[in-house]
Fold this protein.
Amino acid sequence: MSLSLRMLHPHLHPTQVAAVWRALEHSAQPLYFLTWGWIVTWLACLPRVDVPELAVVFDNGEPIAAGFLGQRRLRRHHILPSRARYLNATGVVHHDELCAEHNAVLCAPGRRLRAAELVGLVPDDWDELFLPAAARSAFPDLAGEGSVVAGCRVRIDREVASPFIDLAQVRGSPGGYLGLLGSNTRAQIRRARRAIGPLELEAARDPREARAMFDELITLHTRTWNARGEGGAFADPWFRRFHEQLIDTRFAHGEIELLRLRSGATTVGCLYNLVANGRVLFYQSGLATFDDKHVKPGYLCHAAAIERAAAAGHAIYDLLGGDARYKRCLATGEDQLAWFRLQRPRTRFLIEDWVRTQKRAMTRDAELVAVSDDAPAMAAESRDARRPLR
């Protein structure tokens, strides 16, 4: 095996970039975030200066893997400089808030590019290589925090579960989807259905209906987050424009799903899902609020969408990354996502580690003092915690 890498800029080599990505996608059948529908919209919406190059890996002249590599100069703590590379991301927080997950290098069937190989191929112009929201399975040679791969220290900035529902299990369950859930979650959904009455799930049939449901979703979503004192996901005009363009250009390809659950004339909630290769990804929602606390709009919307996806023959309904309790309650399994960072040996990173260690030690010392001074109060709290809930 003789691996080599070539960098292609989407604005200078648009035809080659599209051809390589679509050929690999056709055979790899990836999740939606690595399909050409998502990628081409992302590239079109980014400012030219932030568009990343496509790194294409060749084996004896044949393209066997590819990934976009963003580039950014960082200055952490206002002091430490770092030249950073980002896999399938720009490094610009404002643009990476799209939160594409299950990140990976797009590979031909039967091929896998290990992190160590990627390190050896990427142009030698970086101090840190970021692999954000990567599926753990995509880079099996990356072990835990502080391990070493190809001379680089592995950092894990964040790690979360990515719960999903196995739709084959739903189809095979005598009790349907609810039969797979824990008794408490099952009871909550049934009680919510009784409380709100007959429900109807609507799916957008064309881009016009999709945009109408999307606008309603944004209204509901924003109302909920404003009540919490925050703007919500769509407060950024760039974020909203990206998704409007995605819906307008990709709905006809069967990649976008806008759903609305209604009880009579009342909207219970709207869901925005991304669909590719048998996997439905729940991306965003807008939910109504009800005075009756037994009505759980999120549970109701997802249960209806999951049953619809199972009936359509899809394989997985993916709730994507996050530690929200409802995701674990609704899921039948979970993957793991990690925000990896590979650091080359640099003195400044050793200094950063030393400072971080000192801060942690000082924090622990302060906590020990607080525990000692607050022992009577903590003992009282401990007694209260053992009291039965009413």
